[in-house]
Amino acid sequence: MMQHFRERWRHMSKRERKLVLAGGIVLGLSLLFLLIVDPLLDKLDRLERQAARKQKDLTELALLSQDYLVKRNRLAKVESRMPASDSHFSLLTFMEEAATTAQVRERIMSMQPQVQTLPQGYEETAVDLRLEGVQLPEVLALLVAIDQAPYDLHVRHLQIRPKFDNPVNMDATIRVLSYAKS
User: Fold this and answer.
1) Exposed, middle or buried by CB within 10 Å (0-12, 13-18, 19+), for 99?
2) Distance (Å, rounded) from C-alpha 112 to C-alpha 124?
3) What is the pLDDT of residue 119?
4) CATH code, 91-181
5) Is the pLDDT of residue 87 over 80?
6) From CA 137, how far away is CA 119, in angstroms rounded?
7) Which of 34, 99, 109, 146 could form a disulfide with 105 if both were Cys (CB 3.0 to 4.6 A apart)?
């Protein structure tokens, strides 16, 4: 087969040889481009897109890391204000003392404690307090006493309704929450 090509090559004129040689070079360069250069350029483009995506992911991960650290510090701060498991803190007892301080203890109609264990390893204690015939300064004094508690307490619900016979006196319902590690 090679001998056949050599024989044909010898029978070609100089002009035909140049034309065949030029065609062979064009064909060889085309194959080189199609088989080697083009796939490399595609791979380079794909790698650049992946690098840009990875850089974006890295930036997002850094933001998430900062957000995580802020939230972890906030959780540590909240946990530091929680009663320790050996402190024997009772929200019910504290609410009775706060009501005594605010001078509304005799107006307490009901006080119901509820304890709920949360799935994250915390225990939520709630006290529903119902007061009748109180005045606004007394309710405010009770809320100040709750706010000045040694531990982190939350007033989840506050409802005040004036009495129809004497609008100065009110009925109030307060739900106070406390959290502790279980």
Assistant:
1) buried
2) 14
3) 82
4) 3.30.70.60
5) no
6) 39
7) 99
pLDDT at residue 45, as a whole number? 94
**Helix, strand, coil fractions of the chain, as percent rounded to 5:** 55, 25, 20
pTM for this predicted structure: 0.62
Alpha-carbon span 94 to 150, nearest angstrom: 10
pLDDT of 84 higher than 80: no
Total residue count of the chain as it appears in this document:
182
Residue 144 · residue 106 · CB < 8 Å = no
Beta-bridge partners for 132: 171
Q: What is the mean pLDDT of residues 29-51?
A: 92
Provide the 3-class DSSP secondary structure of residue 158: strand
CB proximity list for 94: less than 8 A, separation 6 or greater: 149, 153
pLDDT-above-90 percentage for the chain: 51
